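Convert to structure. Protein one:
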Amino acid sequence: MRWNSEERAFAVEAYFSSGCSVIATQRAFRNRFNLAPLAPVPDRKSIVTWVTTFRQTASATKRRTGVPRPVRSPENIEAVRASMLRSPRRSARKHASALRLSDRSVRRILRDDLHFHPYKMAIVQELSELQLLLLNSGVDTSSIPSYFSLRYGLGITFPSLLSPLTLVRCRVEY
């Protein structure tokens, strides 16, 4: 079972205050966290491991293994900046691969250090002449079907956004 930092710290304190007794530590743990009589408590091996870790590192939590790798170093930040300026249309994933950094690290550098924000280029439909004309006159064009204006070229009356009493009459011929 996984135990959080508070539970580990309490178990270490209880171990020392009970005179290095694992059984007394388990009883104190059950009382402190209001556990049922058959609920799981840390076993002997866990408590002894936490105490040993506490004596070595002054912390009951697990030690991080390996060499800490500072990925967001000034050199890497500058490398990402130069790479983005060199080819801005390239994806962040491809930049990460080229720089031999993880995708997550490159995205973190872009967002937090370089203040770049993710976006995706969107291709939208071209506006028809009627829609451009109506847009310039202040009319809401979202309800105008584009095929209607292209096929029939009829005059259409729409209410203007400038004034509810004003009507805009447009005629587009092809």
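Protein two, convert as well:
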Amino acid sequence: MNRRKALKNLGLSLGTITLSPAVLSLLHSCKSDLDWNPVFFSSDHVNIVAELSDLIIPSGDNIPGSKELNLVKFIDLYIHNVSNKKDQDLLKKSTNAFLRNCLTKSTKNNFEKLDRNDLESSLKYFFKTKADDHSNWRQAYNKNKD
């Protein structure tokens, strides 16, 4: 066996061994507990992100959904621990833009008053529209990106 290839494989396997406990600890910490405080999302946004993730990953007859798996906690910890500052800022701006869009469409004045239907209609607007309509949300995304 080539020494260079052996060293490469050894490095990859050590990286996998090192990475695995970190990811497992994130997953392990996602068990449901009532005294959890988010580290990335604001406490106002956590419930909304939980609803959005449940709309995207709903539960089925034999498959748990996002809420049952408590994915919002995993998402919060993952973004806080893995994403760089620039990506975190972009996600915060994008989340706020999405929520402002939800408020505008629903004519409600508070994030806490948004319900599942309000969130679903905005998800449809941003992700299920015709290709021609995508320029609107691309402009909103690019505005937040800079």
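The chain has a mean pLDDT of 77. Residues 3-28 form the longest helix (26 residues).
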